[in-house]
């Protein structure tokens, strides 16, 4: 299963905390890192923590060639994988540490993502209002325990 998450940059493109950070806020509330009224909203940290959580899941991987990093329709595309065996988890962990080292050496070549992804997803499938992304929505994609 492939799914996409809106990933607009907070400083650009008409970003709105109530529309564009609600999934990240819901994740922060779910994990106990944010309580409304007790702390100032920190969407940058919420987003970073959510990204780290997604990257740490062994059965979810980012589909980088379908993700868009720039513009008002910036999204990250992820794929759910079948559960890994213990040996596969070990192999993937050692590979990810190698990838991180080589990734630091590479430079971004800009936004070359197509308007329509190879699996049929398009920018028109992404709603403008993401306020419906709630903890129950996190459960549907397996991000709750």
From TrEMBL:
<dbReference type="InterPro" id="IPR036390">
    <property type="entry name" value="WH_DNA-bd_sf"/>
</dbReference>
<keyword id="KW-0805">Transcription regulation</keyword>
<comment type="subunit">
    <text>Monomer. Homodimer. Interacts with EP300. Interacts with MYD88. Interacts with PIAS3. Interacts with SPOP.</text>
</comment>
<feature type="region of interest" description="Disordered">
    <location>
        <begin position="61"/>
        <end position="145"/>
    </location>
</feature>
<dbReference type="GO" id="GO:0002376">
    <property type="term" value="P:immune system process"/>
</dbReference>
<keyword id="KW-0238">DNA-binding</keyword>
<dbReference type="GO" id="GO:0005634">
    <property type="term" value="C:nucleus"/>
</dbReference>
<keyword id="KW-1017">Isopeptide bond</keyword>
<dbReference type="GO" id="GO:0045893">
    <property type="term" value="P:positive regulation of DNA-templated transcription"/>
</dbReference>
<keyword id="KW-0832">Ubl conjugation</keyword>
<dbReference type="GO" id="GO:0000981">
    <property type="term" value="F:DNA-binding transcription factor activity, RNA polymerase II-specific"/>
</dbReference>
<keyword id="KW-0539">Nucleus</keyword>
<feature type="compositionally biased region" description="Polar residues">
    <location>
        <begin position="110"/>
        <end position="126"/>
    </location>
</feature>
<dbReference type="GO" id="GO:0000978">
    <property type="term" value="F:RNA polymerase II cis-regulatory region sequence-specific DNA binding"/>
</dbReference>
<keyword id="KW-0804">Transcription</keyword>
<dbReference type="InterPro" id="IPR001346">
    <property type="entry name" value="Interferon_reg_fact_DNA-bd_dom"/>
</dbReference>
<dbReference type="Pfam" id="PF00605">
    <property type="entry name" value="IRF"/>
</dbReference>
<protein>
    <recommendedName>
        <fullName>IRF tryptophan pentad repeat domain-containing protein</fullName>
    </recommendedName>
</protein>
<keyword id="KW-0010">Activator</keyword>
<feature type="domain" description="IRF tryptophan pentad repeat">
    <location>
        <begin position="1"/>
        <end position="82"/>
    </location>
</feature>
<dbReference type="InterPro" id="IPR036388">
    <property type="entry name" value="WH-like_DNA-bd_sf"/>
</dbReference>
């Amino acid at each position: 299963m492939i799914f996409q998450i809106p990933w607009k940059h907070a400083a650009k493109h008409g970003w709105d905390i109530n529309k564009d950070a609600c999934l990240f806020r819901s994740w922060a509330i779910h994990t106990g890192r944010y309580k409304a009224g007790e702390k100032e909203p920190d969407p940058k940290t919420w987003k970073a923590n959510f990204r780290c959580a997604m990257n740490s899941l062994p059965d979810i991987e980012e589909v980088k060639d379908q993700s868009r990093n720039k513009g008002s329709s910036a999204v990250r595309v992820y794929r759910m994988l079948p559960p890994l065996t213990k040996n596969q988890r070990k192999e993937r962990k050692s590979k990810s540490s190698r990838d991180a080292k080589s990734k630091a050496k590479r430079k971004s070549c800009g936004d070359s993502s197509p308007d329509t992804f190879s699996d049929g997803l398009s920018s028109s499938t992404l709603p403008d209002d993401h306020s419906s992304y709630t903890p129950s929505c996190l459960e549907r994609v397996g991000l709750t325990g």
